[in-house]
Amino acid sequence: MQKQWVFVGGYGTTIETFEFDRATGALTSVALTEGVAEAPTFLALDERRKLLFAVSEKGGADAAEPGRALSFSVDAATGRLTKLSEVWAGGSNTVSVALSNSGKHLLTTSSSSAEGRVAVIPVSSDGHLAEPSDSQVAGKNAHGLVQSPNGEFVWVVCRGDELVAQYRFDDHSGKLSALSAPSVSFPRPSGPRHIAAHPHHPVVYALLDWSGDIVTYGYGADGLLHDPRTISAFPPGKEPVAAAGTMTAAEIEVSRDGRRVYASTRTPECQSLAVLDVGANGQLTLVKNEAAGGLIAGPRHFILSGDNRHLLLANQDNDSLLAFSVAEETGLPTLLGTATPTRVKKPNALAFGAFD
Question: The pTM is what?
Fold first, then answer.
């Protein structure tokens, strides 16, 4: 019988493992991995190889300390982690990590105010990390990144310079090369934070932290983003006034079937999970902002299950987790139970997978 393991990172030096009951939504803490590098605030999971990856948001955006990338093996029966390796993450204050489509590399961003970077870290077949094969300046406060479904391109949103950097990715060499137009700028103030790619349409979605907007871009065979279209992740009447440094939104994710986009909003007036329908050419329509009866508090991160049937959300403001079922036809989430406390301080990173 498959085990459903949820891994939680945040501020501090721990990663907590929970077992998830799909029938009831119950989350049961089963392990606490201590002594992890400072502030493991983003995670990536490789279910097939039973590997977990983490990056360390060490020292803050203006600190000189190098960020760290770590790999762990996952005990499929218990959910316990065993550290395999730790290397430089390719910059300082590392805030995002994604496993490349092939599984041969980690892609990271480092949110330095001086020179936000995007880096490539080789991953061996058994999960050990090598020193970065590439590290490039993308823009101030580089934050979220995404690889195109065909693996050819990588886009990096940079909150400080308010742009998205555009790269071609060579999976064989582990190198990035800037496209003919190295970047696309956003209106100011916008604060682009995270970015997600549609699995079927040639479309990406950038979530703007300072305005709460989602910008939809198309792209062609050259990987260049074009034709931006903007929609608010907030319900009518609760849209924030865009202001630099004012955090209004956090995470964005596309469902595996491509029918829905989800985004988290985090103003005092609207702590919610936004649900948006995806149209025929990737355009978005806001359907609902789910508030879970007021239990959402600082929704820094959330994650969908692989089958789109469940969604887990991390409440950074009160150190808790929420579990939702997701209706197959509508994509709307329904809260399961109540908030589950976590021992991780300010949880803001989740990884979720099934293990045999």
Answer: 0.97
Looking at the chain, how many residues does it have? 356
DSSP-based three-state secondary structure for 275: strand
pLDDT in tens, 275-314: 999 999 999 999 999 999 999 999 999 999 999 999 999 9
DSSP letters spanning 285-350:
EEEEEE-GGGT---EEEEEE-TTSSEEEEEETTTTEEEEEEE-TTT--EEEEEEEEE-SSEEEEEE
Closest listed residue to residue 178, CA positions, set 224, 220, 227: 224
Q: How confident is the model at residue 2 (pLDDT cuts 50, 70, 90)?
A: confident
Partners of 185 in the beta sheet? 163
Sheet (strand 105-110) strand order: 94-99, 105-110, 117-122, 134-137
The contacts of residue 248 (CB under 8 Å, 6+ apart) are 209, 210, 211, 212, 234, 240, 265, 266, 267
Cβ atoms of 231 and 284 within 8 Å: the answer is: yes
Which amino acid appears at position 345 of this protein? K
Burial of 297 (0-12, 13-18, 19+ CB in 10 A): middle
Does residue 189 have a cis peptide bond before it, meaning omega lies within 30 degrees of 0?
yes
pLDDT at 65 over 80: no
Which residue ranges form the domains of the chain, and what is each CATH number? 1-35+302-356 (no CATH), 36-185 (2.130.10.10)
The one-character DSSP state at 221 is T
Residue whose token pair is 């019988």 = 1
- Angle, vertex CA 137, rays to CA 125 and CA 176, nearest 5: 45
User: Tell me, what's the pLDDT at 10?
Assistant: 97
The one-character DSSP state at 235 is P
| Proportion of the chain above pLDDT 70, given as a percent | 99
Contact assessment for residue 169 and residue 157, using Cβ atoms and an 8 Å cutoff: no
CB-based contact 209:243 (threshold 8 Å): no
- Residue 224: C-alpha distances to residues 148, 168, 328 (Å): 11, 10, 33
Q: For residue range 212-260, what is the model confidence (pLDDT) as tens digits?
A: 999 999 999 999 999 999 999 999 999 999 999 999 999 999 999 999 9
**Contact at 8 Å (CB) between 229 and 215?**
yes
